[in-house]
Amino acid sequence: MAVLQKKMRRLTIKPLPRAVYIAICVFPAVLTILFYVLRSFTDVMDFVTFSIAAPIRMFLGMITSAFPFSVMEVLLTILGICLIYYIVKTVKLTVRGRGRRIKILLKRLLHVGVLALYIWGAFCWMWNAGYFARGFAERNGIVFQGATVEKLTDLTWMFADRANELAPQMRRDADGRFAEDRRETFAASGDIFANIAQEFPELGGRTFRPKPMIYSWLMSRTGYTGIYFALTGEAHINIQAPGHVIPATIVHELAHQLGVFAEDEANFVAIIASIQSDNIVYQYSGYYLGLVYLLNALHNVDRDAWREVHYSFVPELRRDWVDNYEFWQSQRTVDTGVVIIDRVLTAATETLYDAVNTIYDGFLKANDQELGLQSYGACVDLLLAYFLPRAA
Description:
This protein is mostly helical and 392 residues long. The chain has helices at residues 2-11, 18-38, 42-64, 71-96, 101-132, 136-139, 149-166, 182-187, 216-222, 246-257, 263-275, 280-301, 303-311, 315-330, 339-366, 379-391, and strands at residues 211-212, 226-229, 234-237. It has a three-stranded mixed beta sheet.
């Protein structure tokens, strides 16, 4: 017994030297502070983004692509479970600590803070740096020099005409709803950039097949159709979203994977890559997405023109338009049949929706995206800058 106890003592992990412990705690803070100091230097951010972070994200994407499930979701689930366990354990230790309660609590909080700083510091250099590098439009000389309402109306009509032409060609169910096979849509994503890459070579990089999200229900409740996670290199798609918006969403997230950071630019790339692809389903989704943004912009400057375009919708396009609206509206409420429960859960859903969007809006604005969530609609300027010279 004495021999066994002696061996067990030898196996006991010795505490780290204080200097090493301090270095481990301080390093992520230094890493994060360094980012905030250097982020105003565009050349530095360009180098970090495209020469250091991009290859690392590509490597991570290659590794995680070997798994059919989302590595991000698995890691976040494990992290969530561990955090809950850690909180419970912290409460127990603090209660039992008596005279050492403050010391125990501070030490436990320090561990969580250091881990959070490591994650945030890595995210800053792997992704946020891209917001301070030169954007896709600047890199490719796409400059918006203004446009008349008439030009906006003409472009909106062009998108509406193409959407009207393609909508009846989509597979549909007995009720006329979009019914293209989603597995085929995901499988076709690898070739979507082939045509547009001839004009913009940087879009010819390697992409990895996007992954359906396990937590799609949560994405739906917060109003999002997809997410790209730089720390695993994965593009994720909310598969609960209406089918006709999924193809363009896939291209949007893959554009992030290729190094298009700003949301307005990712939307722009999603639209032009989709409509110029050889896949008719992606073409329709691209024209639909562009039409959404163009009509929103037209609504603000010419209600009559906006109304005329709406009235031109063929039944299939109108069906998709209504389905999209009704789906997102349904995600804002809960209907279990029990009034009290419905009110409580609906209020909780609204709170979650507002909280997530407020946080993300703040995140975008803090990273040099001055329009915040409105940057999702700013791609109209890019569409006008891109298409007007071609229409001349």
